[in-house]
Sequence to fold (379 residues):
Amino acid sequence: MNRMAITRLHILSALLLALLAVLHAAEAPKPAKPLLFANYYTWYRTGDHPRYPWSNWTRPEAEQNPFAQQARRPGEPPLSSAARPLVGLYDSADPEIASWHVRLAQAAGIDAFLVSWWDKVKERDQAFESGVLAAAEKLGFKVALLDERAQYHAKLAEYQAMLARALCKYKDSPAYLRLDSRPVVYLYQVASNPGLTPEEFTAVRRHVEKEVGPVYWIVDKIAHDPKAQRAGDEARLKVIPANWLSTPGIDAFGFYSTFSNFRAHHYDELIGKYRHLVGLAHGAGKKMLLPVHPGHDNSHFRPDPYVMPRRHGQTLRDYLRADTEAGADFIMVTSWNEWPETTVVEPSSSWPDPYAYLKILAEWKGVAFAPPPLPGATK
Fold:
C-alpha cells in the first residue's frame, strides 16, 4: 500500500471515530434536571365564604389604590393582584380547582408543591386537606409543608408542638413528599429578622423528630455580607451564615425570593450570587435550593411598588438558566399562585397566552406541555 493510500486510510479512520463519538454523545442520556418545586397557597376564598369572604384576593390597601380600582369588576372587591386568574377568583378548598392545579403542574414538569402552612389560621389547614392534598393523593402528585410559622410564632414550645402535630397527620399520605425516605419540611424565614436561631432550630428538630421520626429539613437562610459590600464584591453580597452552615441536622438551605433580598432579573445579575451560595452549601455538605421568578408586581396594593418585569418570559428563562448553571440541587418557583405579589405561573387571562410560563417550565424540564381541560369543562 502506497503512502497516499495509507494517509487516506488514516483520514477515513479519524472521520469514522469522530462520527462514532458524535453518535455516542447524541445517544448518551442527558443529566437529570434538579427537582422542580412551586410555592402553593391555600389562602383564597370566594365572596360567599361565611367567615373570610374574598380572603387574600383583596387587601384594605387596595380600596384606595387607583390601579386596583380601575381594574375592579362588578360584584368583586378590588384585586390586590396586577393579574387575574384564568378561572376567576376561586376558593382554595374547591377540589375541582385543586385537581386542575395539580394536573397543570404535572403537565409543566413540576415535581411537587411546597404549600404555605399556617396551621389553623383562617381555616387554611382545612383548605389544604380538602383541596390540594386530596387532589395530590388522587392524581399521584407530591406536596410538602412550606412552614411559615417558623417565622411567625410567639412561643417556641407551641410552635414545635404544632409542627409535630401536622407532620404526624400528613407524613404517611402517599402524596407527601419524601427525600432520602424522610418527609420534607421547608422552614420559611425572613432574612432581616429570622424567626429561629440555630439553637432554636435544634430544639425544634429534636422535639419534632422525637414525635415523627427523621425529617428532611430545608431551611430558609440567607444574610447580607457587609464586607463584600464594602469591597464591591457583587457575587458575594449574600451568604449563608457560618453558624447555620455548621448546625447539624440541616439537609439543605434555600431562600424564598431574590426580590426580598436583592433586586435582579437578568442572568448576569444572578449567576455570580447563585454560584457563591451553592458553593457555600456544598462546601458544608448541604444541598441548595434556589428560587426562580417569572416576575413581581405589587402595585395594586403598595404605594411604593416593586415591579420585576416579565420580559415576555425571559425573566423566568434567565432564572432557570442561572439556577441550572450554578448547580442548584432543587429549584423553587416563587410562585404558583401568590396573586397579591403577582409572582404567579398559574394561568392568567391577563396574558396573551395564559399558559406561557408553564410552557417555559415544561420546555426547561424537557416535557411536552398539554393543558388539561378547564374546571367544569367536562360537566
Q: What stands out?
A: The chain has one domain: 34-365. Residues 3-27 form the longest helix (25 residues). The chain has a mean pLDDT of 93. The radius of gyration is 23 Å.
